[in-house]
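User: Could you go from structure to sequence for me? I need the amino acid at each position, not a summary. Structure tokens:
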């Protein structure tokens, strides 16, 4: 009896957080040491770390990768002047890797770091189908530039839902793919939650894509997600509107969760409401939209260049 009582009074060992089964990225064949530093931050919470690349990039990366990074070469047609990994190819590659439906997957760009090792774990996904977060940008000295709320930089979900990402025409490292991921989950009626705290960091740098890239991919996004037929004359104005409304939807306070509340339920995002709003605004002549020539200024709000 006394032994049982003493055992009950002793502190219980902390349960080990559930590991993410696979952390997926696509490393660039440059600044490799910096990217490995970022990926190192995911090791404590991830069972496997994989980089999926075209064989041309793998030829550069392969000899420089440590044994804890799995290099997965895949063939695909290069677009926009580089071997950007298509989101659809990532989806199809992961689907063939023998994961169980309940295995947890994270996707992030290779220059994204966890602020603290182990800060995210599989336990965080208890009441959401998808968790996503925005980064905190850092300057060259490591000082915070604040959260970057115009995009999303890490996604966590169950492997059973990987098929939702089989969307052609979007690429890691180019704009819009980070809006596609949470919105296709919401469109399919899945529960999504935005982590409302600084869990990931990123050293700010100049953007690696052009205004023309943003515009072309935005036209595809508008058609694929909302069925908008974006003409050349209207494209800048409509894509500006789609970007603003999609950003507001994904940053909605109702979808935000903090670490202390992450195991609590979140409401289901109403994608239908977003779709109706976008389509109504797209069909109306809104005086609040900037003229097409002002979109470059608008676009500058969506990027942050490194400070000197």
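Assistant: Here is the amino acid at each position, in order:
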């Amino acid at each position: 009896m006394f032994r049982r009582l003493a055992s009950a009074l002793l502190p219980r060992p902390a349960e080990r957080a559930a590991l993410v089964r696979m952390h997926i990225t696509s490393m660039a064949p440059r600044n490799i040491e910096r990217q490995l530093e970022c990926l190192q931050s995911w090791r404590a919470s991830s069972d496997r770390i994989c980089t999926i690349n075209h064989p041309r990039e793998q030829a550069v990366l392969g000899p420089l990768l440590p044994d804890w990074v799995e290099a997965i070469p895949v063939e695909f047609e290069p677009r926009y002047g580089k071997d950007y990994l298509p989101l659809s190819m990532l989806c199809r590659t992961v689907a063939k890797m023998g994961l169980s439906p309940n295995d947890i997957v994270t996707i992030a760009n290779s220059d994204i770091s966890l602020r603290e090792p182990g800060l995210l774990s599989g336990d965080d996904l208890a009441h959401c189908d998808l968790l996503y977060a925005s980064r905190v940008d850092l300057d060259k000295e490591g000082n915070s530039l604040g959260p970057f709320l115009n995009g999303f930089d890490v996604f966590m979900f169950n492997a059973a839902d990987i098929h939702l990402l089989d969307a052609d025409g979007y690429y890691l490292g180019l704009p819009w793919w980070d809006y596609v991921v949470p919105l296709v989950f919401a469109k399919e009626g899945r529960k999504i939650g935005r982590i409302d705290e600084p869990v990931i960091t990123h050293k700010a740098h100049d953007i690696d894509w052009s205004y023309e890239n943003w515009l072309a991919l935005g036209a595809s996004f508008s058609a694929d997600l909302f069925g908008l037929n974006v003409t050349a004359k209207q494209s800048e104005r409509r894509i500006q509107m789609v970007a603003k409304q999609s950003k507001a939807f994904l940053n909605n306070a109702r979808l935000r969760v903090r670490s202390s509340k992450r195991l609590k339920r979140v409401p289901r995002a109403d994608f239908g409401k977003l779709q109706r709003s976008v389509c109504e605004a797209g069909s109306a002549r809104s005086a609040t939209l900037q003229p097409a020539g002002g979109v470059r200024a608008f676009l500058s709000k969506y990027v942050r260049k490194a400070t000197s």
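One structural detail worth keeping in mind: The first strand starts at residue 22 and ends at 25.
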